[in-house]
UniProtKB/TrEMBL annotation, chain B:
InterPro entries in UniProt: Asp/Glu-ADT_sf_sub_c, GatC
Name of the protein this chain belongs to: Asp/Glu-ADT subunit C
Pfam family of the protein (one): GatC
Biological processes annotated in GO: glutaminyl-tRNAGln biosynthesis via transamidation; regulation of translational fidelity
Highest taxon listed in the record's lineage: Bacteria
Organism whose genome encodes this protein: Candidatus Berkelbacteria bacterium RIFCSPLOWO2_01_FULL_50_28
Length: 459, 99
C-alpha cells in the first residue's frame, strides 16, 4: 500500500510539474549485452535512475526537442552519451521537458507547456534544461542529463537548488544531441550532489569518432588542494546588477575557500560585457543553419501540400514556435549579404577575444567564481514577452560557453522567501575535475545541497 | 542602427522557408528591431581580426575516412512521412507552372 501511494504521489508530481514529456515510456534497464560490459567491471552507474533531456536521442523513444515539428518522430539510434550510460549500468527513466530546441531560459517556449519549479510552482524552473532540473529537485530521478549552450544547465540548476556541470567543450560527444549552436553545445549532468554529477560525467566523457570536435579526454579526480588555491573574481560579472541575496550567498562560497587557505584577487576579462550580444549573433546564425534540416521530409512531421517548396514553408511555419522563428530570422539576417561582416564576422572576433582573455586570466588564477544568475527564479509569464530580458538570464553564464571552458553551478543558499541560490565555479579548458573537486569539498561541509522542496509546493 | 521593415522581415522569412501569419508578424515586428539594436553594440566594438581558434578548440582531428554505417529501409520507413515502393516519397519538385 505504501508503495502504491508513493507511485501515485510520483505520478501527481510528474504531471503537475510537467517535468517529463512522453510520460508513458517504459524505463530502459541495462540489456544482457550491456551486462557483459557490467561483468567486465564497469558498474559505475548501476542502479542509478537517469532522466534524459528530450533533445538527446534514445533509440526507440520519441525525440521532440520540445517542438511540434518533431511530434511523432521516434529516434532510430542512441546518442553516444546514451550508449555510454547504458554500458555503465544506468537505468533510463524518461525524457524531460525543455524550451523548444533549447531556445529559452524558462521552459516556457516548450510546445508542450512549461515545466514548473518544485520550490514554488508559480515560478519557472529555468531553462532550457528546466524539466531536468525540476525532475532532480523533486526527487523524480537521481541524475538528469541537460545541455548547455549559454547557461542551459547552470541556470536551471541554480533555480532548482541542484548541482549542474557544463563540461569543457569537446570533452563530451554531441553525437545524437539535437544541434542548436554547434560551436557551444555541450551535454552535462545535473544532480543534488556534485559526486553524482561527477560519476555521470566520468562515464560519458571522452573522444568519439562521431563528433570531430571531441578531443582525447580521460576524466580523473585531481584531489585539488584549497590551501593556496588562487580564486579570481571577474570584475565584469560582479559589477552587474545582481540580486543582493544572490551576491551575499556567493560571497559565502568564496569565504568558505578563503577560510581554508585560498587567496582571492579581482581579475578582469574586458570583453566579457560583449559576450551576450556576440552570442545572440552567433547562436541564431548557427541555429538557422542547423534547423534548415527540418523540412517536412526527414523527421516524420509533415504538412500535406502540392509542391515541395510549399511542403518546406508550411511544415516549418506550423511546426516552429515564436522564439524559434525569431532566432531563425535573426540568424538569416546576420548571415545575409551586407550584414555578414558587420555582425557575424565581428561576433566571431569578439568570441575569440573572450576565449583569449580566459586563457590569459587562467595563467594568473586557478578558478573564477561568480553568481550563476542575476535574479531569483522568476514568475511564469514574467519575461516571456520581452526577449531581451529573457536573454539576460544568461548574462553570467554565457562567457564560459564562448570560451569553451568548464563551469559548475552549485547550491550556495536560499533567499528569505525560500528560493534556491546558485553560484558558479569556472576553470580552464580540461579542468572539469577542478570545479567538481571544489564543489565536492564545499558540499562535504555544508548542507545547502541536502535541502529539499516541501511536497506542498508541488502537490 | 539597422532598420528592419515589414518588407525586410518578409524577405528573411522567404529565405528561411517560413511563411508568417499575422500573429507572427506582430511579434517579429515588435521584437526583431529590439534584438538587432541589442546586438548592434558589437559592430562598434574595437576588436582585432580573430586569432585562429581552430587550433585551440580542435586539438586533434580524426582521420577522414568513411565509416561503414548503413541506414536500413526499416528505419527510413519509420522516420519519413511518406514511403512508397521502397522509396521516400516527396511532392513534385517542378509543377506545370514552372514549365
Amino acid at each position: 500500500m505504501v508503495l502504491s501511494r508513493c507511485r501515485q504521489y510520483l505520478l501527481i508530481t510528474m504531471s503537475e510539474l510537467n517535468a517529463f514529456l512522453h510520460t508513458d515510456l517504459k524505463p530502459i534497464s541495462p540489456s544482457p549485452l550491456d551486462s557483459l560490459e557490467l561483468a567486465r567491471g564497469n558498474r559505475s552507474l548501476e542502479g542509478m535512475k537517469v532522466a534524459i533531456k528530450d533533445n538527446i536521442a534514445v533509440a526507440d523513444w520519441p525525440l521532440t526537442a520540445g517542438s511540434k515539428i518533431l511530434d511523432g518522430y521516434i529516434s532510430p539510434y542512441d546518442a553516444t552519451v546514451i550508449t555510454k550510460l547504458k554500458r555503465a549500468g544506468a537505468t533510463l527513466i524518461g525524457k524531460t521537458n525543455l524550451d523548444e530546441f533549447a531556445m529559452g531560459s524558462s521552459t516556457e517556449t516548450s510546445a508542450f507547456g512549461p515545466a514548473l519549479n518544485p520550490w514554488d510552482n508559480t515560478r519557472v524552473p529555468g531553462g532550457s534544461s528546466g524539466g531536468s532540473a525540476a525532475a532532480v529537485a523533486a526527487g523524480l530521478c537521481d541524475v538528469a542529463l541537460g545541455s548547455d549552450t549559454a547557461g542551459s544547465i547552470r541556470q536551471p540548476a541554480a533555480f532548482c537548488g541542484v548541482t549542474g556541470l557544463k563540461p569543457t567543450y569537446g570533452s563530451v560527444s554531441r553525437y545524437g544531441l539535437v544541434a542548436l549552436a554547434s560551436s557551444f553545445d555541450v551535454i552535462g549532468a545535473m544532480a543534488y550532489k556534485a559526486e553524482d554529477v561527477e560519476r555521470v560525467f566520468a562515464a560519458m566523457s571522452g573522444q568519439d569518432e562521431f563528433d570531430q570536435t571531441t578531443f582525447s579526454y580521460k576524466y580523473k579526480p585531481e584531489g585539488v588542494k584549497v590551501d593556496g588555491l588562487k580564486i579570481g573574481l571577474p570584475r565584469e560579472l560582479w559589477e552587474l546588477e545582481i540580486d543582493p541575496e544572490i551576491k551575499k550567498a556567493t560571497q559565502e562560497l568564496v569565504k568558505f575557500f578563503v577560510d581554508r587557505g585560498a587567496k582571492i584577487s579581482d581579475v578582469s576579462l574586458p570583453s566579457l560585457p560583449l559576450a551576450l550580444p556576440a552570442y545572440y549573433v552567433i547562436l541564431p546564425a548557427e541555429a538557422s543553419a542547423n534547423l534548415a534540416r527540418f523540412d517536412g521530409i526527414r523527421y516524420k512531421h509533415s504538412e500535406p501540400t502540392e509542391t515541395l517548396l510549399e511542403r518546406y514553408t508550411k511544415t516549418r511555419s506550423v511546426g516552429f514556435g515564436a522564439e524559434v522563428k525569431r532566432r531563425i530570422l535573426l540568424g538569416t539576417f546576420a548571415l545575409s549579404v551586407g550584414h555578414y561582416d558587420a555582425y557575424y564576422q565581428q561576433a566571431v572576433n569578439v568570441q575569440r577575444k573572450i576565449e583569449q582573455e580566459h586563457q590569459e586570466v587562467f595563467e594568473k588564477v586557478d578558478v573564477l567564481i561568480s553568481p550563476t544568475t542575476p535574479s531569483l527564479p522568476f514568475k511564469i509569464g514574467e519575461k516571456i514577452d520581452d526577449p531581451i530580458e529573457m536573454y539576460k538570464s544568461d548574462l553570467l553564464t554565457v562567457g564560459a560557453n564562448l570560451a569553451g571552458v568548464p563551469a559548475i553551478s552549485l547550491p550556495v543558499g536560499f533567499s528569505k522567501s525560500g528560493l534556491p541560490i546558485g553560484a558558479q565555479i569556472i576553470a580552464k579548458r580540461g579542468s572539469d575535475n577542478v570545479v567538481l573537486d571544489l564543489a565536492k569539498i564545499f558540499q562535504a561541509e555544508t548542507e545547502h545541497h541536502n535541502r529539499r522542496p516541501e511536497p506542498s509546493n508541488h502537490q | 542602427m539597422t532598420e528592419l521593415s515589414r518588407e525586410d522581415i518578409n524577405h528573411l522569412a522567404k529565405l528561411a522557408r517560413i511563411s508568417l501569419s499575422d500573429d507572427d508578424h506582430k511579434i517579429l515586428e515588435r521584437d526583431l528591431p529590439k534584438i538587432v539594436e541589442f546586438v548592434d553594440q558589437i559592430t562598434r566594438a574595437k576588436v582585432d581580426a580573430a586569432p585562429t581558434s581552430a587550433t585551440t578548440r580542435l586539438a586533434e582531428l580524426r582521420s577522414d575516412e568513411p565509416q561503414n554505417r548503413t541506414l536500413s529501409k526499416e528505419i527510413l520507413k519509420k522516420t519519413a512521412p511518406e514511403f512508397k515502393d521502397g522509396f521516400v516519397q516527396v511532392p513534385a519538385v517542378f509543377t506545370n507552372n514552372n514549365e
